[in-house]
Amino acid sequence: MDKFKPFIEDSLERINRLSNQEKVAGVVGIASLIVLSSYLTKSSRKNLAPLVTETTIDGINIDEDLRGWLHVASQKYGNTFRAKIAGQTVTVIGKENSREVFLNESFSFTKAVADKFDVLGMFGIESDEKYLTAPSIITRYLTPSLTLYNKRINNQINLKLDELVGPAKDEPKTIPHLFPFVLSIVARSSTSVFAGEELCKNETLVNCFATVTMDIGSNLNKNWFMDNFPMIDSFYQRTIFPRKPTILNHRKNAKDVLTPVIEERVRNLNNPAYDRPNDMLQVVIENHDPKGEWGLPYTDFIINWMFVLVFVSVHTTTENATHTLYYLMKYPEFRKEIIEEQKRVLAEEGTEGKPVKFTYDVVKKFVKLDSFIREVFRMRTIELQLQHKNITNRDIVLSNGFVIPPKHLVFMNTWDISRDPELQGEDPEVFNPWRFVESAKQAVRIGNDHIIFGLGKHACPGRFMAVNSMKLVISNILDRYELTPESDITLADTVRGMPFGGVVFKAN
Ligand code: HEM
Predict the structure, then answer these.
(1) Is the reported ipTM for this assembly greater than 0.90?
(2) Domains in the chain, ordered, with CATH?
């Protein structure tokens, strides 16, 4: 011990020479080191999935070819590994473990999305708590009414086609890009379901519902601080963004149109002589007591509900209907078969010339169209998608033993799912629109092999409306017009990518 004496005395003397501030800093520094080293020891003891740091594997670079990179990375490191994606270390989950993530309530897709793109917060909806019943409202009231809503959806699609394409008999009409075209059709037909047949004639409201989601997306200019400091990001999205003129304008427009209607419906709630409107606005009002504590004026609360429905449905349905139409344009031979099926079913069902040609039952018989849509979904689930966040403050241990720490993000390697021959059948690389015709795998039927709508308790409750609307938009267009590509059709080859090409519409 004696041999340490000079060292200890020297150290004590040095410490005594330090100012009080320096001593405090020293103590804090040592304490931090102890905490940090104990954290590092603990986390290094955790069985985290292997961290892949190579940005290029077998000559494939992650930024140039994410899909190819995912493929070689999973061959080399197994189906679960960690990687730095867009500056953040996340865990990539392959087909073997994706199901358990969906089914585990400790993971949340909506919270993971909201961390980066808090659409409700950006629209000034402070808490999502009061709208958590949306899935059950959709399942209980919307999906069972689709048979009834089909008439108005068809009507609105046709009115919009009259307006956007017109007769196009002698003079064909060229639509330069199908996305805005489909968006205005879907916005109008969805408004007829959400707010009723009268309100869907209101251009201001329909335009607001059509553009609000994209306006939020295009106005969110993230900078380095927001990407690296989640609290600054959240503050910006929830406090500053909702005050932007575009957002205030959308709110004002919706409020001006919807407030008098909501007030009138509330006044008539207990009036037996009132002709009860049949739409989601009425359902939402009837499910929320006007005298209840909603934390904001009742009309604002109900208007928020309308926007919640719009945010989850209009853009998603439009995007997928647009992609499907472009696939139909790219493959005229398949388009021909879809048209033949349509003609055959209409003849069998005898609805030609009736007020509603494409009834729910007719649409159900379009098995080729259904398979085509599901195949387009499959072609679109091809990268890292459906991120989920561990929303608890404890580790989640996956069945393969890998640990997902609190707040950590996992991404589904959807390429692994959509290109697996065991899950998808022969030649999964090939676009085969009739892949599901002979199977019971409808476009709405979720499963380990079909996760575009999620899985489990939180699987998309609006998928029945979404696929039904897609079929009605496509069927009405094909029924009324002969379509020819104006130029080459380019399909999207990434998840975020857009197809391109003008389409010439000529009346049949
Ligand atoms: C093709 C169009 C659509 C796609 C691809 C889609 C996809 C999804 C996905 C992936 C989820 C998350 C599932 C999960 O957390 O596991 C979801 C949730 C949801 N979707 Fe859709 N959706 C579409 C259309 C719609 C429509 C039309 C509605 C409403 C009418 C809707 C309402 C909802 C709601 C309310 C949730 C939240 C479910 C929950 O948290 O429990 N979606 N959707």
Answers:
(1) yes
(2) 1-34 (no CATH), 56-507 (1.10.630.10)
